[in-house]
Amino acid sequence: MQNSTLKNILIEYDKKRTYAEAELEEKKKILFDNNPELKNIIDTLNNLYLEKSKIILLNNTKKKLDIINKKIMDLKNKKNIILKNLNLNESDFIPNYSCKMCNDTGFIQNENGLSSMCSCLKQKIFDINYNKCNIGNLDKENFETFNDNLYSDEINIEKYNSKVSPRENIKNIKKICNNFINNFDNADEKNLLFTGNTGLRKNISF
Question: Which residue ranges make up each domain of the chain?
Answer without folding.
Answer: 3-93, 136-205
